[in-house]
Amino acid sequence: MVNESRMPEGLEGFGEFLVGMPPRMGMELVAGMLQSNGCPDANFDARELVRMVTGEDPYVRQDPLTEEEVIQLVTLAARRFERYPLQYLAGKWPFLNFEVQVGEGVLIPRADSEPVCLAAIEKAKAVEAPAVLDLCAGSGCLGLGVKKFVPAAAVTAVEKSPEALVWLKKNAAGALEGFSEEHPALIVEEGDAFTWQEGKAEESFDLIVTNPPYLTADEMLVLQAEVRFEPAMALDGGVDGLRFYRHIAEAYLPLVKHGGWLVAEFGWLQWEAVKAILEQAGWTEVTILKDLEGRPRGAAAKRP
Ligand code: GLN
Predict the structure, then answer these.
(1) Domain span holding position 193
(2) Are 297 and 112 in contact (CB under 8 A)?
(3) Is 235 in the pocket of ligand 1 (CB under 6 A)?
(4) What is the Cα–Cα distance from 155 to 139, expressed in whole angstroms?
(5) Are residues 235 and 168 part of one domain?
(6) Minimal-distance CA residue to ligand 1 atom 2
(7) Same domain as 139, residue 287
(8) 214 CB under 6 A from ligand 1?
(9) Is the model's pTM score more than 0.70?
(10) First to last CA, the chain
(11) How many whole angstroms from 24 Cα to the centroid of ligand 1?
């Protein structure tokens, strides 16, 4: 008999049914449960949940699910059923070829940001020991990507949200090999993008990389169920989603060395507006970067 008091309410029967089942069959049942509440990628998620609980892929592991594993699996599945993000349940998520820790209060790294990070890495590689700024750093994934592939880079990561800063500091200490709390991969600073630049020396950086909040007011009203669990502060870019670009394009240009670069992510419908904002502020050689689905998702721009 399953210890019913430890099963999420209403799922005691489901749990009892799963105990002793091959993990793969458990995965299929969990997938059906998630599907019934419209979870996108329910099969992928169910497989990940079983893997999180058993430590093994359900296609590999043959031993039947134990009661303890089922209690954990059903608890996680119930959370995911409510559309709570899989990434928060996992507590970590891959970005490029490393993992960052994530949880409530910080934006989850997206695969769409990887091409943006790769462009930043390419720009950083062209300088011997580049000074890099990751503005609105969140989990730190962009800055960490640069540090990982350009170890000589000195990367400063600026974040406003106290909740996100907790994750940023953890990742600066632990996401890349060879770093620690005493010797973090990133120089983490608490700061608001709208004021952080004040009093900073001209030409402090070879490169600024940023994924600022860029959703429009209309988009904020129709967020996907999972995204509602993520911090609005990391998403809300003002009425037209362009509030941060207007400021960054203008106020951060002097901080970049002549010949240095700004690499920024944005929403795929915003490329023309962002390009115009950048050019108006004096940036040149504006190149549009595409995401994994081929949509315009970022820009690289040079300070002449
Ligand atoms: N890419 C995120 C989303 O689609 C938005 C990230 C951001 O605003 N910087 O939810």
Answers:
(1) 92-302
(2) yes
(3) yes
(4) 14
(5) yes
(6) 235
(7) yes
(8) yes
(9) yes
(10) 72
(11) 33
